[in-house]
TrEMBL record:
The lineage of its organism: Eukaryota, Sar, Stramenopiles, Oomycota, Saprolegniomycetes. Transmembrane segments: none annotated. It comes from Aphanomyces astaci (Crayfish plague agent). InterPro entries: Impact, Impact_N, Impact_N_sf, Ribosomal_Su5_D2-typ_SF. One of its GO terms (biological process) is regulation of translational initiation. Residues 19-122 form the Impact N-terminal domain. Gene3D superfamilies: Impact, N-terminal domain (3.30.230.30). This is Impact N-terminal domain-containing protein. It comes from the Eukaryota. GO terms for cellular component: cytoplasm. Pfam families: Impact_N. Belongs to the IMPACT family.
Length: 201
């Protein structure tokens, strides 16, 4: 399964200020809820003067999405940010918009436009890339099969991230697209005569 994500983190500020308020957008690649919340924490630390750090994230493997208004009126911040992620079909990303209050209230419509605008701005400046769902597995095989398994991984669009040799066996940690995972398991089992052991990394 292919999906879109962003290549690297980027920040962009909506200009000019809206009735004195600053809206600073930031998007970063993430692969878990913990990653996303860590991004939000980093933004809080970077802009401690901001009154709100509203955000949304979307995760491909977990098929999970979430948004937060962080104290703004219900659905005026988190949901517009989430809609920008959805419209661009971007996953494995967390988008945060930090607001530094300028002294004048914007009203619900004004807030929606401001948060959506800041989210759209940072999204427009981000580099969107196509990727595919992958999984990390450790496979333990008799030592004489290690090099054959290592060389074969490219046939499944995967890569070996580590290789450890023991006395009689070798453990290879591989990153492989989910769509090829079953075929890779079958190949290794047939190659080793069923003497391979798989585990999640």
């Amino acid at each position: 399964m292919h999906f879109s994500t962003i290549a690297k983190a980027i920040e962009a500020e909506l200009l000019p200020k809206i009735k004195g308020s600053r809206f600073i957008g930031f998007i970063a690649p993430v692969t878990s809820r913990q990653d996303a919340l860590s991004v939000v924490s980093q933004r809080r630390a970077m802009y401690p003067q901001a009154n709100h750090h509203c955000f949304a994230y979307s995760l491909a493997v977990a098929n999970e999405s979430y948004c937060s208004d962080d104290g703004e009126p219900h659905s005026t911040a988190g949901r517009p940010i989430q809609q920008v992620l959805s419209q661009h079909r971007v996953q494995d990303a967390c988008l945060v918009v930090s607001r530094i209050f300028g002294g004048t209230k914007l009203g619900t419509g004004g807030l929606v436009r401001a948060y959506a605008g800041a989210a759209e701005l940072v999204m427009s400046e981000a580099t969107i890339v196509e990727t595919q769902l992958s999984t990390s597995r450790t496979v333990q095989v008799p030592i004489r099969y290690a090099e054959m398994v290592k060389k074969s991984i490219v046939n499944f669009d995967g890569r070996v991230t580590s290789l450890d040799f023991g006395v009689d066996s070798a453990a290879l940690t591989v990153q492989i697209p989910l769509v090829h995972s079953t075929a890779f398991h079958t190949y290794v089992n047939e190659l080793t005569g069923g003497r391979a052991a798989f585990s999640s990394s």
